[in-house]
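step=predict obj=Transcription factor IIIC 90kDa subunit N-terminal domain-containing protein n=784
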Amino acid sequence: MAAASPCDSSDSVPTNVTIKIEPDAEDGLLFGPEAVPLKRDPVVPLMSPVCGLQPLSWSQDHRLAVCTSSSLSVMELVCDIHSSKQDLTLHRTSIPLPTEAHKLRVGPSAELAQAIEKFSTHPDPSVRQEFLADRVIHPSVGVHRGIKYASWSPLGCDASGRCLLACLTLDHRLTVYNSHKRLEWNLLVDLTKKYSERLKERGYAKKDNKPPQANLLDLDELQRRFRMQTPMRMEWSSIYTIKQVQPDNTCLDVEMILLAVLMENGDLVLWKFVLPFTNGADVLFYDIIESGVARPSDLAWWEYENADRRMSGLIVGSEVGPVKIMPVSLSGVKGYFTLRHPVILWKECDEIAVENLKCVPMIHPIHKSCCSLIVASRGCYVFWCLLMISPAGLNVHNSHVAGLHSLPVVSLAVSQHGVAVYTCSIDGLIKKLTPTFTENTLIFKQEDMLRPENLSGRRMHGIAVSRNGAYVAIVSTQGMVGNFHPISRTYQVHFVTLKTPETAAALLLKSPSQNLYKLADLLDLVRWQILKNKCIPASLQEELDQKIQEADSPYLWRFKLFLVRILHQALQMPQMEHSWKPSHEESKVFIREDEEEEGENDYEDTVREEGVGGIKEEEQRAEVQAWINAVETHLMRENIKKVLGVVYLNTWLAQNISIPTCGLVDYLSKDTNDRASEVLIGHIKKKMNKQTFSERCSLCQTVLPFTDHKQATCKNGHMWLRCVLSYQACQTLTFRRCLLLDSIARLPEPEVFEDSASSGCYMHLRSLSVLPECLRLDSPGRSS
């Protein structure tokens, strides 16, 4: 348990010591007098005006959600290895607004109609005007249409290992979506409707289950019933692991996630999603917390984790100024502690609304302890609060950053890696705040972001930073066209770099996650540099080779394969001539003899130079292709050893799931310089004792020879693609394909075995073969 306590200081470090919390690699950020941010193409036009208080939201799987008045536009950043274009590759989809009208149910229809009639013609002008001006209670005055807010869940919440999307419309409809095959969005559950049904069953009672004493003819009761089910914000928690008791009294680890919904009356409604979440009927009501905030404005999760100790709470901001943390009780989570009572972060009621709440976990460089930085915009100011847990309790340090903007802050974004806060005002200025630690507080360094010229003089509506801080997305108006305002106001999304390619490469080499897909925004910067310069930076290549010699990890080899593939695309000859254009070879031109001889000589020299250059480029492309083949062969051989290692531990495995063991052994035996392969092959042959299980074609039952690691062809010509991990022939009509489109994997369909141990080992190997290596490390998304 923890409680709030006064600030306690330590004398171990002088008070005047300041420590920058950013890593050295962050020095490549594009701020300062010498570095200039670069705008990446394309500029994405929006079909409808933006809406909502925070129109941009960037997910952990590199998808940007833009709230507009007609739909929720989603742009996915794809690091395409098959394209030689230097522009960003964006995959666009959208979620349209529901066509049917949405109405909240607060009681019997006849009683509601009578209440509407009563208050619409109430003799008291103050009562009548208050009722008629409320668009929720009295929607006949006009309902706004559009997306109010969008919130992404952490990575790994749906069946494809990607993010869920919670969407709140301006008519207060809260829904949860997931993407299907990256092409469409499926509605999983309507939480507003589900909560309305729950309130109806409980008689619209409060948390104490006491039935209301008044009916809908009482204005206060009518407003209470509407406000208790009108969502304003929603935020996802992190993923928790709980113990679930099975019918045979065994415990199973189950992952879950909570969605907190802030209601207009200040209530916090928690919904529980068991992962992977695929069926909307499986969502469970978890808890309701009464915050006591009469006019709530924003919401964020506070989550603390240090070793085996975890705590969490919900940060609630108010339209009048106060900010507080409400305790959240989680039963069944190992090492979880609960706050004893709410923690007040700011108590002054100065009528300045709290917006853009963000919470970032950090490590205090002086005390060497975990802490949390909470930031929010309050008018022209930025409110910050530092939370530190000590043996005495929870220490709260707070203040404001003033002098940033002359107009209110409209958007605030936080870069998680190398913590930095970016603010955007209506005046079009973007500022960066870099926190530095002192003994007992924080100091923020203020910097102006140097914007490209074509972004000057535009009204900004929102900003968002990519997962690893490589890009900042900016939504703005079109701006002036030829010193004139455009006839109709249009909106655009711009992508501006925050890091240099050199900084991105350094972060990729030092990444603790060892996951290329999670670093896709940094990869795109490196890809852009290689395509521009048509070469891999020598410093990057040398450092990568050195790290591979020190630690021979698959991540580094896949990073090297990515670099070489991009280089191969950069060296491709662009198609200069078009087949449909007429040829001018037969056109006749009358010139003098001396001019003709001079022209022939120049033409011969040009042809000779182009021929020499073309031969060199062909040789370079052939060299790069050989380089690609060498890296792919290394990765393939290492994976074959992994598969054969599982077979060696369980020799009956090959018979159950048709692992082409003999073919893999023969393929590995071709390299006589690999001592580890020879030892493994010897053990496998000795243990199998001449027991071979041939892989057969499902159409003609003939043996499928192992001649290629990518496909298998029987003697009758039936061709099957091989799973990139288990090397089994995928003899089905559907399978999972990597987003890079260079490998496939079998679908995870468990088979029934008589031996339970056999089934367990089968599922272990199948869990490896569900996702190709490049897909597991380069993309969690899958499609058939």
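step=describe
Residues 335 and 598 are 86 Å apart (CA to CA).
step=end
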